[in-house]
Structures are given as C-alpha cells and as structure tokens.
Specification:
- By secondary structure, this protein is an alpha/beta fold.
- It contains eleven helices and eight strands.
- The protein is globular.
- An eight-stranded mixed beta sheet has the order 1-2-4-3-5-6-7-8.
- Helix 4 packs across helix 11.
C-alpha cells in the first residue's frame, strides 16, 4: 500500500476524538454539516439544471448539471478560469443522492474552483424512481456508461473527470475499465471508499454496529415504497418489506425481481477483480481508510499500485468521511482539486 510522508499534502492525518471511524462516517452524511456548507454550495445549486440522460433501451438517468456561467453573469468568479472547459461527474453511494452531504461538499468545492459539475443519479435514486419501471441493482453498469457517454455528447466540456463514493466508487472503477470499449473519454477517475466485495461489505454491515444496518434498511425500504407508489401495477413489496435484515431483503429482491440465479451470482456481477486494474489505461486513484466500518480492510490487500493505478489507505477516515477539522471540512474536497491539477500538470510536462 502507498504510505505517504506526514508532511506530504496528499496525506490525511487526524487525531483525537475526530479520528473515531463512526464519527467520521456519520459526519460524512450529516445534516448539520450540510447546513454549515450552505454558503459553499450556493453557486453550484443556483446554476444547476436538470438533465435526463439517454441510457439506452428507453432507460433515462437523472442528473443535475451545473455549468460554469460567463464572467459577466457571475457575481462570484471561480478562482481558476482555466478549468472552465472541464467537467467532473460525481456518483453518490447506495441509497444516497446528488444532495448527499459528502457529494454536495465535493461538488461545491470543484464548482467554486471553476469546474463544471454533473451530479449523476443511479437508477431509482434521488427524484428518479418514476423514470424507469425496472428496479435498480448494482450490476446495471451499461446504462451508467451510456448515460455518461450521452452527457459527453451533449455538454461542451473538453475533458471529463469521474468521482465516485462508496457504491458510486465501485461504479466509477468498473467504468474506468470499460471506458475505452464504450468510447468514453476520461482524464482521471477517483473512487472514495469504494465497495470492492459486496459479500464482505454485507457481512461487515451484518456484524458491525447496528446503526449502519438500521440506516440502510430504513432508506432501502423507503425507496422500495416510493417505487411501488409510481408503479403500483408492477410492484407489491408488502411481503418483501417484512424482511428483518439486509441479507434477507437482498435475497428476496434478487430472487423475485432480477435475472440472477442467486445472491452470490448477483454479487459476482459487481465485485471488483484486483487483476483487472494492473493494466488500466486511465489514471485512477482509490482512497480509503483502514478503519472504514463498511469496507473491510482485510479483503483489499490484493490490489497493488501501477503506473496508472494508485491505491492509498489511511489509518483513519471512516466511510466517505475524511473530516479534517471541527468546521467539518472534508480533506477529500481539497484532495480532488490537487489530484486533477496534478494530472493536468503532469500531462503538460510530458508534452
């Protein structure tokens, strides 16, 4: 694993009570933190437009697009106009959305530095349950690739960067492997706290603190009821919603509403194979914490760094947290800016 010196700006180092992984993980999605960053996200949300992206076979994915506006119309100019032709696409985690605190924070930091930003919703997430009749599942990679390709075709940006959190990080990494084949042009991919092994993540949730199980179970059941509301002739989840835990609910849904032969078969379709990343053609960064209560550290030591694939594990940070001070600012926000600037600088030097 890459271990960076303590004085390196790319290192996340935190001590005291803020280093607690559960505090970090809860602050990642904290409503209080969202309120504190309201001023930071004002311009991003002021200029956002709703996009419905063509994901093939009649499927549409929902997104919020915040383009950089012209200087004469913008009251607060971005600090770096050199980024105005660059688009960052961000993908939230499971049962998250474009409004999730961790994603909104990162998107706002990027937008305020001059990047255009697209916050993409996975199927059935955010306000999109009514768009497609079939249910979301994590193996629906092709439609996300096609939606990103549609965004690239429709939007004026010359360079595209991709950022994913948790399950969104899993999607981002799989997209990086398929990008060339799908004719998706990506400059840099960053995955924060990505799901590597669905089986081990579900095991961690089952055996870990109950607060995480309750959180995901509540949000998942709410999403299913919303789906049922929009498609009452297709879905009746009354029996399924009696499931008492995540494993039971997953089994019920996989067996009754997907094409997979079993839960294990389903998990295999979106688990990440370390061998595939050794020759990835796209600059890729993975950032995670050894104390992540959702992503078991012991199951990811098969990944190794290569020329284009950088894998960093920090002692602390929780799940999608990396909160660096008591103002609840995330180190991830500044690290994304550093990475994307570093990438551009290295390309300039190479040429």
């Amino acid at each position: 694993m890459t271990r960076l010196p303590i004085d390196n700006p790319a290192r996340f180092n935190i001590k005291g009570i803020l280093a607690n992984p559960h505090i970090q993980s809860m602050l990642a999605s904290s409503r209080l933190r969202k309120r504190l960053q309201r001023k930071q996200s004002r311009n991003l949300e002021k200029h956002q437009k709703t996009l419905l992206l063509d994901a093939g076979e009649g499927v549409r994915l929902h997104a919020y697009y915040s383009p950089q506006v012209s200087a004469e119309k913008q009251t607060t100019l971005p600090k770096n106009h050199a980024h105005s032709d660059k688009l960052v696409i961000l993908i939230h985690g499971w049962e998250g959305s474009a409004q999730s605190t961790y994603l909104l924070s990162a998107a706002s930091a990027l937008y305020n530095e001059g990047f255009s930003v697209l916050r993409l919703h996975l199927r059935d997430h955010g306000p999109s349950a009514h768009l497609n009749e079939a249910l979301f599942h994590a193996a629906r990679l092709d439609e996300v690739c096609l939606a990103i390709k549609d965004a690239q075709n429709r939007l004026p940006s010359k360079k595209t960067y991709l950022v994913g959190f948790s399950l969104g990080g899993n999607f981002a990494l799989r997209i990086s492997l398929d990008a060339r084949k799908k004719h998706i042009d990506l400059e840099h991919v960053v995955a924060i706290s990505p799901v590597f092994s669905p089986e081990h993540t579900m095991q961690a949730l089952a055996e870990g603190p109950s607060v995480y199980r309750r959180y995901f179970l509540k949000k998942w059941k709410r999403a299913l009821l919303n789906k049922q509301h929009h498609f009452p002739d297709r879905y009746d989840f009354n029996t399924v919603l009696k499931s008492r835990n995540l494993n039971e609910l997953t089994k019920d849904l996989v067996e009754k509403h997907t094409e997979f032969s079993s839960v294990d078969d389903y998990y295999r379709h979106y688990a990440l194979d370390p061998m595939l990343f050794e020759q990835t053609p796209i600059k890729t960064d993975v950032i995670l914490a050894a104390d992540d209560p959702v992503i078991p550290f012991k199951h990811i030591d098969a990944f190794s760094c290569s020329e284009n694939f950088r894998f960093r594990v920090f002692d602390h940070g929780g799940h999608c947290g990396f909160i660096q001070n008591w103002r609840f600012e995330s180190w991830i926000d500044s690290e994304l800016l550093r990475l994307f600037n570093e990438h551009d600088l290295s390309k300039q030097i190479a040429h």
